[in-house]
Amino acid sequence: MSVVPQPVGRRERNKQEKLARITQAASELFAKFGVDEVTTQQIAEAADIGTGTLFLYAKTKGELLLLVQNMHYAQALERGVQAAAKTKKTLNGLMALLGPIVECNRVQTENGRTYLREMVFGDPAEPHHAQALSIVAQTEQAVADLLGERENLDQDSAATMAQIISSIMFLTMAASFNAQATAQEIVQRVKAQIEMILPR
Q1: Does residue 2 have a pLDDT over 80?
Q2: Whole-angstrom distance, CA of residue 76 vs CA of residue 53
Q3: pLDDT of residue 1
């Protein structure tokens, strides 16, 4: 006997609508002005809610940035997985997979670098932070799957290599000396490092 899904109640619909408005408002303001120049009051006003209500969804501006960037990161990962599937060589596949993530991180450079800091130093028990870490894990799994398939690596070796590649990408994006680098420059620097460690 199949279970008929229950309709979403009004209260839950209201919560989802408010979250969507908050995400949209924060995304637009962060993209236009940068995270450091935007206040939670401005986000609340743009989302047409009270500041107290805003804090029910995200307690700090850092959590709001995680909320926004997580959405963009997940979309970039999906695009990367689809692009990688169309390649044949391992390195090309890895760069097709990782390229959209780098580009996503560099849309607004300071936002991207702040997002990485929040991801590393934030509270892993906080839901938006936990979601960011989950997306990182999904990225590493996608890399491991590609390596396992194309390089015939066993599961443990592929997972370890994926963690190394993930670290290369995130450190290259976060490094202070790359603060002014374009997305394409970051991609090329990541590619050069990955090329050195791939099995030959």
Answers
A1: no
A2: 29
A3: 47
